[in-house]
Amino acid sequence: MHVQDSHWSSAVATGGALSAPAGGARGDGVRTAPLRVDAQRNLEHVLRAAREVFGELGYGAPMEDVARRARVGVGTVYRRFPSKDVLVRRIAEEETSRLTEQARTALGQEDEPWSALSRFLRTSVASGAGRLLPPQVLRVGVAEEHDPADHARRLPQQRTQTAGAGELRLVPEQPVGGVADDAGAAQLLDVVGRLVERARTAGELRPDVSVSDVLLVIATAAPSLPDAAQQAAASARLLDILLEGLRSRPA
């Protein structure tokens, strides 16, 4: 996983402009003019190229690489996305939303807790979304010793766990300029938390497995390889191994 957040934090403050559709109302109520056909086509090319480039090289990849992959001038990219931060946040928001929907689908369509969790993991890994998750979702720290105050800061689905030495836990990203953490990331953590809690309650998931572990599996099992068939085969094999490590075994 090559996620770099040097081009992420300052984008948090740009807020609503990122959710503007091609035409219509933005999140802040400001109307935007519909794009011409050629401009819309260029936007789609840029977004597709950005997903590919950032997925392969991480969010530190330069805008020139995105423009080259989209076969447009770098000026075209900057006309639609005035800074790299804006483009990075747009891509990460879309991928986070896609993962959230995949998790909700697994919750709604699979009755068995383990089947729901494994379906979500297989779908998300196959889509390659793990390579584009935002840093605040993937940040993981090591708790060196038990801190009662830390207990309240962890995710709700981890409240019953003891923060022992060496435990992996999500580290919340500090808000920038007073802006709260991204709502989309919070939704993703909540839905995945329900998948984890169901599987744990059913005794099918190891009791020490947390939401952060599941998201790390998604990121780890989505390697970027030049050959699509090899990439799919490697992802499937690695995920099979990781799923075996997550599953609870009879004593």
What does this structure look like?
- The chain has 251 residues and is mainly alpha-helical.
- It has 2 domains: 9-89, Tetracycline Repressor, domain 2 (Orthogonal Bundle); 96-246, Tetracycline Repressor, domain 2, CATH 1.10.357.
- The chain has 11 helices and 4 strands.
- It has helices at residues 9-12, 37-57, 63-70, 74-80, 84-109, 113-127, 135-138, 148-153, 183-201, 211-220, 228-246; strands at residues 24-25, 31-32, 140-143, 167-170.
- The strands form 2 sheets. A two-stranded antiparallel ribbon has the order 1-2.
- A hairpin with a 5-residue loop joins strand 1 and strand 2.
- The model is unreliable at 1-31 and 140-181 (pLDDT under 50).
* Tally of contiguous helical segments: 11
Average of per-residue pLDDT values: 74
How many domains make up the 3D coordinates? 2
Distance between the termini: 34 Å
Global shape: elongated
Across the major sheet, the strand order is 1-2
Question: CATH first level of the largest domain: which class?
Answer: Mainly Alpha
- CATH fold call of the largest domain: Tetracycline Repressor, domain 2
Which spans have pLDDT < 50 for at least 5 consecutive residues?
1-31, 140-181
- The count of β-strands is 4
